[in-house]
Design goal:
asparaginase; EC 3.5.1.1; alpha/beta; Asparaginase/glutaminase-like; 9 helices; 322 residues; Rossmann fold; Asparaginase/glutaminase_AS1; hydrolase; four-stranded parallel β-sheet; binds asparagine
């Protein structure tokens, strides 16, 4: 018999309508899940009960610590985390980066509230529990299970605001076919990083987006605010408009790391263009994030900076996690 720990953090799966105040996360995870699914037992407890749009880095660190403790329990075979979908890709990616156990960690949530007549949370949790208890997913790291599909946390993102399947990308690892979980792939794994220290909570890493007419002063401002790093979500393969290459040079000259990602949903950063494009941004000191999107690139950057290593070592370590 497999034993799963379920850790609740809130989100729509734990939300109920509060009338004109909108839906609010109020529900304890233990109220959401049965204690047993077939031959799998589930122990549920809550870490937080909030919408994921309210999370900060301290919350993400606390979730990672709680998951680490649950994984260390010899009576636990896998962990399920329930989470709001808005920023689930960030938390799940952090859990994947620090995942140092063969036991699966499966993150899930819901698109419809707990009091909705067609709530999707119960089914998502049942499938996530099944995935977390599945021996074939040992060694697969942190996964996202939603609407019958299990995908790697790395590379996944919320791609639809309301659809029952809001996540895309990542490596599709398994899917439900009737009552069976069909395992189709093994995601690429990286050496686990240490769970970030409390310095992570205040590691300021901003995201700045390129668009027609975008002003590079926002990048200067982020540096003035004390950002340790800025992720530049460039256009296309990683470009930005007039003034950005100079602003990147000023930022890196002031000790602020600049990571170059893309605002395009899929595909790698490939420095290709001059005249302020990716070639010039990299020349100015920006570090391309390969195909890590701005939100997950920000998490990796903040984790690495939180260890307090000398900044000269950042590029090589960052690149080894791409
Ligand atoms: N579907 C959801 O869970 C969205 C919710 N606003 C959240 O991220 O907490």
């Amino acid at each position: 018999m497999a034993h799963i720990q379920l850790l609740g953090t809130g989100g729509t799966i734990a939300s109920r309508s509060q009338g004109t105040r909108g839906a609010v996360a109020t529900e304890a995870s233990s109220a959401l899940v049965p204690k047993q699914y077939g031959d799998v037992t589930v122990r549920a407890r809550d870490i937080l009960t909030i919408g994921s749009y309210r999370l900060d880095l301290a919350d993400l660190r606390r979730i990672a610590e709680a998951v680490g403790q649950a994984l260390a329990d010899p009576d636990t075979d896998g962990v399920v985390v329930t989470h709001g979908t808005d920023t689930l890709e960030e938390t799940a990616f952090l859990l994947d980066l620090v995942h140092a156990s063969p036991k699966p960690v499966v993150v899930t949530g819901a698109q419809r509230t707990a009091d909705s007549p067609d709530a999707d949370g119960p089914r998502n949790v049942a499938e996530a529990v099944r995935a977390a208890a599945d021996e074939r997913l040992r060694g697969a790291g942190a996964l996202i299970c939603f609407n019958g599909t299990v995908r790697s946390a790395r590379g996944a993102r919320k791609v639809h605001t309301t659809a029952g399947s809001p996540f895309g990308g990542g490596t599709e690892v398994a899917h439900m076919a009737g009552n069976q979980l069909v395992v189709t792939a093994t995601p690429r794994r990286y050496p686990p990083l240490p769970t970030p220290p409390t310095a992570f909570d205040n590691t300021r890493v901003e995201i700045i987006t390129a668009y027609p007419g975008a002003t590079p002063e926002l990048l200067d401002h982020a540096v003035q605010l004390g950002s340790r790093a800025v992720v530049l979500a460039g256009t296309g393969v990683g470009n930005a408009g007039p003034g950005f290459a100079e602003a990147v040079k000023r930022a890196t000259g002031n000790g602020c790391i600049v990571v170059l990602s893309t605002r395009a949903p899929w595909g790698p950063v490939v420095p290709t263009y001059g005249d302020g494009g990716g070639i010039d941004l990299v020349e100015a000191g920006a570090i391309p994030s390969a195909d890590l999107n701005p939100f997950q690139a920000r998490i990796l950057t903040a984790v690495l900076l939180s260890y307090g290593e000398p900044p000269e070592e950042f590029p090589a370590v960052f690149e080894s996690y791409l």
